[in-house]
Amino acid sequence: MKMKKILCLSLSVLMVVSMIGCKKEEKKAETLKFGMGVVTEVSKASNAEEDANGQGKTTTNVAVVTVDAAGKIVACQLDAADATVAYTGDGKAIANESFATKYELGDAYNMVAYGGSEKEWYEQADAFEGVVCGKTLDEVKALVAGEGKGTEEVINAGCTITVAEFVQAIEKAYNNAVASDVTAEHTLKLGAFTEQSCKDATEEKDGSNQLETTFLAVAVDAEGKVVAASSDCVQVKFTFDATGASTYDLTKAVSSKKEAGANYGMSAYGTDLNGDGVVKEWNEQAAAFDAACVGKTVSEINGFANADGYGNADLQTAGCTMAIDGFVKAAAKLK
């Protein structure tokens, strides 16, 4: 009888240990897919007139998402880089004072003051982010109604602006999402930095007013350390002749540098900085930068860049030998 009691007690202890083990398994957070997508539209490339400068206008919508095993979006962050550049009737490029995304502008975007809206752009973007969480991609795509605006569910949530571009960016982010160590406890952040370069036109050569916007999306833990990162860049070069007439082709689609892949041509035409005879493509170098961000804080990412705008020795050894000043400046603007 005594042996039976000891045996029963031993079995009971094993069952308790087993149950504790099961509970620990159940509490283990699910890892999610993580991805970013950008969609660029060039809506204007006008000629300069006697009483008006020529203009080029571009808008890039960007989304970062996490996706669970069931294909549902767990978290989402949105932003849009909207910029207009100008050039004169005698072929001079005009430099902008500064650039800011719609989310960065906050209340200064003035959608309430001048657009007759009840909420600012960033508030409406936040509202749409809330609606898409918990939905599959097909369900998100079904949120677009007439004229690109949202369905009744979207409008009731507080988003009355057009959402078609949001959905396009989310679709790209969703399809770009890859396995990661990100969980629902981590926070998504987006940063964007726009750099402008200007060249005046001559009789022999067109001038240009170029915009290059670098995006960085990250998921961070409670200590502010990056768990996953994804970067990309969109370059739009508005060209014009010495009379201010636009020579930019509005019919061509704009791909990001990461989307261009091997067609970007960095391996074919880039400079071999390491002297090893190999120049990796832009997307490969960006992937090396993304990998180097993992485990780092924003301040540590800012420390990647040397004074010349190129990466430090560790980053170059990791495979990112191109200029990274746009990346670190985007990191400094993570929101």
The major beta sheet can be summarized as:
5 strands, antiparallel
Tell me the strand order in the biggest sheet: 4-3-2-1-5
Q: Could you tell me the radius of gyration in angstroms?
A: 25 Å
Q: Indicate the overall shape.
A: globular
Task: Give the topology string: H per helix, E per strand.
Answer: HEEEEHHHHHHEEEEHHHHHH
Percentage of residues in strands? 25-35%
Kindly, what is the distance between the CA atoms of the first and last residues, rounded to a whole number of angstroms? 68 Å
Spans of at least 5 consecutive residues whose pLDDT stays below 50 are 1-17
What is the β-strand count? 8
Fraction of residues in helices? 25-40%
What structural category characterises the helix and strand content? alpha+beta
Mean pLDDT: 91
Total helical segments? 13
Explained architecture:
The protein has 335 residues and is α+β, with helices and mostly antiparallel strands. It has helices at residues 2-27, 102-105, 111-115, 121-132, 137-141, 152-157, 164-176, 257-260, 266-269, 282-293, 298-302, 313-317, 325-332; strands at residues 33-45, 54-67, 73-87, 93-94, 178-179, 187-199, 207-220, 226-240. The strands form 2 sheets. The protein has a 5-stranded antiparallel sheet. It has a 3-stranded antiparallel sheet with strand order 6-7-8, covered by helices on one side. Residues 1-17 have low confidence and may be disordered.
How would you concisely characterize the structure shown here?
The chain is 33% helix and 26% strand. With 335 residues, it is α+β, with helices and mostly antiparallel strands.
